Amino acid sequence: MSDLLLLLVTGLGLGALYFLAASGLSLIYGLMGVLNFAHGVFMTAGAYAGWLTMGDLPQSLPVGARLAVGVVVAIAVGAVIGLVVEVVLIRPLYRHHIQQVLVTVGLSLAGVAAAQGIWGADPRPVETPTWMSGTTVVLGARLPNDRFVYIAVALLLLAGLLALLRYTRLGLVIRAGVENRTMVEALGIDVQRTFTIVFAIGGAAAGLAGVLYSQYAGAVSPGQGGSLLIYAFIVVVIGGMGSLTGTAVAAVVVGLVQQLANYYAASGVGDLSVVLLLALVLLLRPSSLKGATA
Amino acid sequence: MTSQASDVTEAPEGAEPATRHTAEPEAARGPRRRPWKVVVPLLVLAVLAYLPYVPAELPGLLPGRVNGPGSMQLLATCLVIAGIALSYDVLFGRTGLLSFGHALFVASGSYLLTISLSTWALPLPVAIALALLASTVLSLVVGAVALRVGGIAFAMVTLAFAQAASIIVMRNPGGVTGGEEGKVLDRDAVPALLVGVANAPYRYWLALGFVVLAWVVVTLLIGSRAGRAMAAVRENESRAAVLGLGTYRVKLLAIVVASVLGALGGIVHALVLGGSNPHLTTSEFTLSLLVMVVLGGAGSRWGALLGGFLYAYADARLVEVSGAAWLEPLPEVVRQVLSQPLFILGVLFIVVVYFAPSGLTGLGGRLIRKAGSS
């Protein structure tokens, strides 16, 4: 029983990380139809920004406080990168989806290589607050505290994004844009500006995901964002390409399946069963992937 | 897709608009009216085949003499990668399928060969046949599932499948794949001609043979009915479907042909480099194939080959740029970044996507025509 509880919580924690990584991807894809391969670089940038900030702040501050500042910096860096990438690289290729994908692919190659050149290919250890590396005993299960943090942050992000979509004018434009972009443009609304904002939001979410993933992994490395990105892609596809709630559900399912299969079968089976899950979803419900509402 | 959007997928061979490819097969108008279309490839082939007899040195370009083992090995690797890029172009440039899982089939060819040679102790011809057969079946299964969705979702699904294979290889089940170390080719199972430093020219000819075979297969394919159906699917899939083409079957055929060629490339890659490298399984490898094809020019045999060759060459040789003297005055950070070949290639790739959507060969063709008309 305590084993199962442990697996459920760690699985949920993993799912929370997947959601953090996938939410920005899903939002961008849903509105703009851009498959953002550079999302992994956004995450890596966030992770390195957080790591550098934590190293630069006076060491007398507690690790938790430095991490909090690092998270804020990572979110800001992610947002700025997202903004710049959209304005400089994505916007000129408006409606040329394949070229947009190609540009983000080039960006992901160059970004990882740049990080590798500056900070080296080896993982650099990241400081973790003592509380987050400890455990809490619930019903006889020793649950790692950091998972609760991930779950809480993911829930906050989900609630925040849903509220943004539902109750603000920007959200209204985004939802309408996902449904029928041409019509929104015809009504005289500046969709272009919305794209930029959505990209910045996606970048901010990616920066947050990156810094939390570096806490989860205990280190930062150039390839980190890319490895998380693959699971984020799977989550986005299973979640219905562009639906935020679908993405959240898919992230939880993927995280749980991975964790449970890794424990009850063999290590590594979990990663494979995620792909199997994707194949099953495709075979049984291919129509659910043709796009969705935000 | 607007007209500019299809520029990248348009075939830059000759100056015809791509729509005429569907109406007028390349094979029918090719050799008779344009003898150079046959002569130039044969000439290039003759020069390449003669290279192992050239003792000249090209300082800065190649390590040592042209026919020295270092240069031969480098050129052989570049040729194999060029051939694999050509196989990827069947998907991307010819059929318009954005697959992120092509590495899966290259890796399955490579790993099935090395595993069946050393673990199952099969003779070389049987091992090659097994690797090709298994890769064909794999491509049928993966293609059948992945083609249930189109466009960007197809890209993601193929990526996921390739990632699964990469995970399996890295986990090293039963010590069979060698994990991150890769799998070394069993030297005793391979003809002596292909083993050893002194025999590098034979490996070079083997790689050249693979490129020629891939070229012939792709040429036959694009001249055939199926090849024209692929071009139709690329240009406008709904129109092709309305015209009564079984687009699903056409796309599946493209995947199978590309995968078998890719698997053959993987086999030759393992023979040339003396083993299987887990890098072949990664999504970065597929991404680099995409970069090669777009750099060279998608939908063009010359483009894919040139892109693959130059990419592999740059990847191996650009490292020396970091030691170059003219970089000294630059700040440390800039030099560190420039020392990464992938950074330069990634930036170059973005530039090509923007300013030369038909790739280097398309750019070259445009310059030649400009010079000819003025």
UniProtKB/TrEMBL annotation, chain A:
<comment type="similarity">
    <text>Belongs to the binding-protein-dependent transport system permease family. LivHM subfamily.</text>
</comment>
<feature type="transmembrane region" description="Helical">
    <location>
        <begin position="34"/>
        <end position="51"/>
    </location>
</feature>
<feature type="transmembrane region" description="Helical">
    <location>
        <begin position="263"/>
        <end position="284"/>
    </location>
</feature>
<keyword id="KW-0812">Transmembrane</keyword>
<keyword id="KW-0472">Membrane</keyword>
<dbReference type="InterPro" id="IPR052157">
    <property type="entry name" value="BCAA_transport_permease"/>
</dbReference>
<keyword id="KW-0029">Amino-acid transport</keyword>
<dbReference type="Pfam" id="PF02653">
    <property type="entry name" value="BPD_transp_2"/>
</dbReference>
<keyword id="KW-0813">Transport</keyword>
<dbReference type="InterPro" id="IPR001851">
    <property type="entry name" value="ABC_transp_permease"/>
</dbReference>
<feature type="transmembrane region" description="Helical">
    <location>
        <begin position="228"/>
        <end position="256"/>
    </location>
</feature>
<dbReference type="GO" id="GO:0022857">
    <property type="term" value="F:transmembrane transporter activity"/>
</dbReference>
<protein>
    <submittedName>
        <fullName>Branched-chain amino acid transport system permease protein</fullName>
    </submittedName>
</protein>
<feature type="transmembrane region" description="Helical">
    <location>
        <begin position="148"/>
        <end position="165"/>
    </location>
</feature>
<feature type="transmembrane region" description="Helical">
    <location>
        <begin position="63"/>
        <end position="89"/>
    </location>
</feature>
<keyword id="KW-1133">Transmembrane helix</keyword>
<feature type="transmembrane region" description="Helical">
    <location>
        <begin position="195"/>
        <end position="216"/>
    </location>
</feature>
<feature type="transmembrane region" description="Helical">
    <location>
        <begin position="6"/>
        <end position="27"/>
    </location>
</feature>
<feature type="transmembrane region" description="Helical">
    <location>
        <begin position="101"/>
        <end position="121"/>
    </location>
</feature>
<dbReference type="GO" id="GO:0006865">
    <property type="term" value="P:amino acid transport"/>
</dbReference>
<dbReference type="GO" id="GO:0005886">
    <property type="term" value="C:plasma membrane"/>
</dbReference>
<keyword id="KW-1003">Cell membrane</keyword>
UniProtKB/TrEMBL annotation, chain B:
<keyword id="KW-0812">Transmembrane</keyword>
<dbReference type="InterPro" id="IPR043428">
    <property type="entry name" value="LivM-like"/>
</dbReference>
<keyword id="KW-1003">Cell membrane</keyword>
<feature type="transmembrane region" description="Helical">
    <location>
        <begin position="152"/>
        <end position="170"/>
    </location>
</feature>
<feature type="compositionally biased region" description="Basic and acidic residues">
    <location>
        <begin position="18"/>
        <end position="29"/>
    </location>
</feature>
<feature type="transmembrane region" description="Helical">
    <location>
        <begin position="74"/>
        <end position="91"/>
    </location>
</feature>
<feature type="transmembrane region" description="Helical">
    <location>
        <begin position="103"/>
        <end position="122"/>
    </location>
</feature>
<protein>
    <submittedName>
        <fullName>Amino acid/amide ABC transporter membrane protein 2 (HAAT family)</fullName>
    </submittedName>
</protein>
<feature type="transmembrane region" description="Helical">
    <location>
        <begin position="202"/>
        <end position="222"/>
    </location>
</feature>
<dbReference type="GO" id="GO:0005886">
    <property type="term" value="C:plasma membrane"/>
</dbReference>
<feature type="transmembrane region" description="Helical">
    <location>
        <begin position="333"/>
        <end position="356"/>
    </location>
</feature>
<keyword id="KW-0472">Membrane</keyword>
<dbReference type="Pfam" id="PF02653">
    <property type="entry name" value="BPD_transp_2"/>
</dbReference>
<feature type="transmembrane region" description="Helical">
    <location>
        <begin position="128"/>
        <end position="147"/>
    </location>
</feature>
<keyword id="KW-1133">Transmembrane helix</keyword>
<dbReference type="GO" id="GO:0015658">
    <property type="term" value="F:branched-chain amino acid transmembrane transporter activity"/>
</dbReference>
<feature type="transmembrane region" description="Helical">
    <location>
        <begin position="252"/>
        <end position="273"/>
    </location>
</feature>
<feature type="region of interest" description="Disordered">
    <location>
        <begin position="1"/>
        <end position="29"/>
    </location>
</feature>
<feature type="transmembrane region" description="Helical">
    <location>
        <begin position="285"/>
        <end position="312"/>
    </location>
</feature>
<dbReference type="InterPro" id="IPR001851">
    <property type="entry name" value="ABC_transp_permease"/>
</dbReference>
<feature type="transmembrane region" description="Helical">
    <location>
        <begin position="38"/>
        <end position="54"/>
    </location>
</feature>
